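It would be a great kindness if you could assist me with a short task in structural biology. Thank you for your consideration; the sequence and its tokens are set out here.
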Amino acid sequence: MKGVLCDMRKGGIDGDLLMLSIVIDSFVRAGHMSRALNVLLSCLCHRSHVAAANSLLNSVKGKVCFDVGTYNVVAGGWSKIGKVGEVERIMREMEADGAAPNCRTFGFLMESLGRVGRMDEAVEVFCGMREKNCQPDTAAYNAMIFNFVSVGNFEECMKYYNRMLSDNCEPDLDTFDRIITAFLRVRKVADALQMFDEMLKRGVVPSIGTITTFIKRLCSYGPPYAALVIYMKARKSGCVISMEAYKILLMRLSEVGKCGTLLSIWEEMQECGYSSDLEVYEYIISGLCNVGQLENAVLVMEEALGKRFCPRRLVYSKLSNRLLATKKTEMAYKLFRKIKNARSLENARNYWRGNGKGFQTKCANSSGDRVFASPLARKLAEEKNVTSSQVSAPSKAKGATDAALDYINIPVSQIRKVTASRLLLSKQTIRHYYLTVDACVDKLMR
């Protein structure tokens, strides 16, 4: 179970209530009551319900054996909101209970002091750890690095980072994440890339969410060259790139007109198993238009329409205007006809799905004949004299659609004018077990 949870954490997958209950129940069944309590306290503190976590801790005191981790969870919750007094109280309770504070506990104390601006006291606590026979570890150094990063003192931040290395403390993902994020926040891109290289050299593999955060921040200002460096190095190191990160890169590359890189990233995205959606197609079409590759843009537009993605009017207008400006009137007209048909289909489908709950009715009796729920369906059955035995299984949907269209008997040209969606959604049940939306809409729009 712990291995699965670690894989979820590396993959950036968040758990739900069911998973939480399974984890707690597993610990309870195994007799690890303290661990089950720690999981529940962690969830409360993670959502800033520290007071509730503290009340729960006091209510079960004496019933469940507390360890250092139990106290650290609540102390970490208080440190996130800068409650120094509460963290010190938790430490006193630990000592009274016979549990000695560890480096993580001192780290929470230093972090809470840094949040309220008491940096000198945080330094004193750090220097006094050795006097209490507690050698600073990665968690303690991370607390000091976070304190100096929060006030923008990068010189002291790197000083403690180098001290960490000299004390043979290996920096973890949290260390690099905080330093790189701080560099990117003040637009020190070169320093951020240098720290990213060092992170990969030390074998620290960033998670999906970490890579996405770096790329998103780098793409928020200027051309995405640094974001591409992060992307290529992360992909080369075997890191998983999220769909959101791919979309951000495609959007920025489309805006700056880097068509070759845009298509390469799109191809790599598909190789990773991600399927293109409407946003991706819009970025590709817009990028191809920006560099004048109108024929390729039309091909991508047709591919999107073939997958029933109808791009926005802004994207279509951009492509259409470029085609007309380059005297490609025939190509623009053909594209116009395809877009018009695709939008009619999309509007009809959306209207059907939004209002057609009564259409899809399962009707069958023991004798094999159909039972129809609406007057239109019954009349269709009487006029066509169709039963379930006369219609083969593969052609039921098609037969139902043809029968409905024959009964309605309205020309297709008039259907387009009157709007196919209103005709389809007459609040009647068409003869079929489960008549699909697309079958009837496609038949009407031909």
